[in-house]
Batch of 2 targets.
Target 1
Amino acid sequence: MRTRLRANKPAPAPAPGLAGQVAAADARALALELGGLRAPEHVDVMGLGIVLENGETAHRTTWCWVRWRVDGQWSPALWCHVVVTDHRLLVRLPDGTLRSQWWSTLVGFEADLAAGHVILDYGDGRPRLFSGPQAAVLAVAGVAMLYGPEALVSHPALDPIRSTAAP
């Protein structure tokens, strides 16, 4: 789901079945874009009210459930707007504040698409969990940004969204 929304106007949580199929198709499209095999989609960052760094490219805007692990417990899930860039995940919390989750400072990355989540670990004792159907998009972006676009064809975490049909 790509929508242009700001704080206090959350997108509705998608229905699981169809949303999963749409998200997997979007993740495959993103993989082709990041691999240079398809023209990239345009993301209107000005319309979203965000500022990117010089040379930073936004690849997708989506919605996910976001949690932080604090004192050994996962926080309650927040339905957040997430902008996926080649430098970070830019998360707009329900109160309108922004949080940057930088790819370059990760020490751990776990994508489990069967469970529907991606965990980002910065080594600060507060891993971040992104869940929902669009976790597939975050997983593709994470694999490409952390291991290089060539890892999109071999990283085992992406097996659930790989097309098995012959071209």
Target 2
Amino acid sequence: MKKIIITFSLFIASFTFAQETAPPPPSMPTVENKIVIDNLIKTAGFEKYIYSYCLEKIEQAAKENNWNEKKTQEIIKSIHFNQFKDTIYNTFSLYSKEDLISLVKLFEKLNHNKKNINLIPISDTIQHNLEGFATDLIKGDYLFLNK
């Protein structure tokens, strides 16, 4: 009986401790790489793409749900690129500085003098998180940023 109680106690204790460990934080780039990623964001036109994507999703939701103009504009005003930037940092955090510089040069070359067409390096992670970001915007989760 004593063995059963001790075993059960150890099981409960180990289960409790296992539940207290948090998942690891998202990967973030070094300070140097963050500067290069910021340059990639600017060169590739990430901010414009994110805004355009969210705007399109918001306008679609506004039509489907018969929103008035005031609500639509409030939701549109809650699009803040800085709320999405960490996804981009996380995605490119594992690249070396040299690889990031190569990407910046590539996208400078590809997007040079292209007014309406920009190529953007989008990963599955970025697209998945962008869809979630747009959904959260539509639900009004970022309206607090308008204050």
